[in-house]
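Q: Convert this sequence to structure tokens.
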Amino acid sequence: MSKSSRLPPNAHHIEETTPVEITITSRLFKDYLDCPTKCFLRASQQEATENSYANWGETRNASYRRETVERLIAEFSSENVAADLAVSKQLKTPSWRLAVNLAARAQKL
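A:
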């Protein structure tokens, strides 16, 4: 008996599903690079067990990220920084050189 004959008749059929909207955050992207399963679990909002070391690491990284963003913003003049979602008009002009805390969106990724 061949391998394909052991499969159910609809095994080769891929059902179309409704696209799921997921915001890919820097945390999800890092999780994907570390472990795709971890990324999937986080994206599907499944709770993980508490891990004090991981919590400490996340807090430390958030602190480093915040301090670095503040330092970078201080190095640029305000007209060269796109710093929140309210600057959508500014994003269309080439005047900014640094973008922080902005969500980039794309369809059908």
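The longest helix spans residues 52-75.
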